[in-house]
Structure formats: C-alpha cells, structure tokens
Amino acid sequence: MLIxxxxxxxxxxxxxxxxxxxWGATSESPMPLDVLVGLAHAGHQVAVATDGAGDVVGAGVxxxxxxxxxxxxxxxxxxxxxxxxxxxxxxxxxxSWARDRGASTMRWTFDPLVRRNAWFNLGRLGADAVxxxxxxxxxxxxxxxxxxxxxxxxxxxxxxxxxxRTDLADPDRNATWRRAIEGPDGxxxxxxxxxxxxxxTTTWVRVPDDIVALRAARDPSVPIWRELTRAWLGxxxxxxxxxxxxxxGGWYRLCGAPAQTAVVG
Length: 265
Prior knowledge:
265 residues, alpha+beta
C-alpha cells in the first residue's frame, strides 16, 4: 500500500466514492467532493492509500486545530477488503503530518458501541476517552448509523507518548461484585466493584459484538444497548470517572468514586 497526501481532483473524487461505500451513504455523502477539495486547498490533509493497481482503498482527513498544538482527525475510512492494519497506517501518517506542523495532540470521535473501533482507538492506538457526548451528530441516515442515536466518545491522542494498551483482560464474572446489570442479550453487561481502600470503584461496561449488524437487522436490542451504555459510560464520565482501558472481549474499564448512576437493565 502507498499512502500519500493528495490535492488531485480525480483522486479526491475516488476518495468521496470510497467514503460513500464505507458508510453506506445513499444520499448525502459523508465527505462531499467540494469539501474535500476545499480542505486540501486550505492546507489541511487528505491522506490517500492506494493498492498495487492504483485503486483508492483507504483515506483520512485531518485538520489543523484552533490551537497551534492541536489537530483533528475528521474521519478515516478503509475498504472492507483492505482492512487489517491499513487504518492504523493512515492514523500514523496523520500523526506524522500533524507533528510536522507543531501539533502535540489529535482529537476525534467514535461511537462507543462499535467494538472494533473501541479496540482500535483505545487499545491499539492508546488514545484517551475524555468525554461522552450524547447525540453528537444529531440524526444520521447512512447505513452504518441509521436507526440509532449518534452518541460519541471524544478522544485525545498524545502524538509523542501514547502507546498501545492491549493487555487488559476481561473481568471475572464469577467474582463478588457490588452491582451486576444484565444486558439486552441476557448476559451481564455492567459490573461494579466494591470501593477499594482509597474509596474508588472499578466499573466494567460491555458492548455487543457487532452493533452495526444489529442495526442493519433492525434488532430491537439496539436502543436498549444505547440507553444502557449512555447511562453508564456517560453517567460515570459525568461523575468524574475515567476510562482506563478496553478489552478485546468488548469491556470498557472505568475507575472513580462509587457510581450514583441510575440502574439501567
């Protein structure tokens, strides 16, 4: 794969087509061609990944932030057949571009319910979830998001020192827990520990295997998953907890004072 920055109109037109396919947009494009051209012309980055045949199989848009030390990754999309490391390569390319322009951090958002993105962002990249934003984008009509609320994590990535956090194991469901909440699939989805000697608890919140597939199937559990994770992830963050990791098995770990969050089952 070759990753390069592009200002070429024909290449940017291929990027728009790629983004439409990745997000399943049938009407409004996630990133229209005129916007891509304008962003590249204004000095922002449109990174394009091409395969051996010269076809566009991945792309990312990165903006310089309002503050000189900040940058913003607006979106990254990779064709289904090209996944398996290309997304991380594009993110590293964005990081190099941003650091060359004086940025020390990068921000972006992602859906807390999408397990593969949580693992990629929090685990493989080592970014930090700093805020939970309900309905960040309002109503969305693309195939990937339709039928669900657009809640998002806000992430901050330290461009100099962030490192992967991929060694966190799932919680022991057979241990003694202060509180255990069942998810819509009938399995435990929230586990809260007793306070430790410092008065802090550890709370684990699980997300489904593939929320995008559940949305496509119009599964009735989708709004229940959203309500549960909004109450616990968003509620805990509002109470001052912090996200300290995500497991390969789909569990967020949060640490802080004992939760006052309303029980949602």
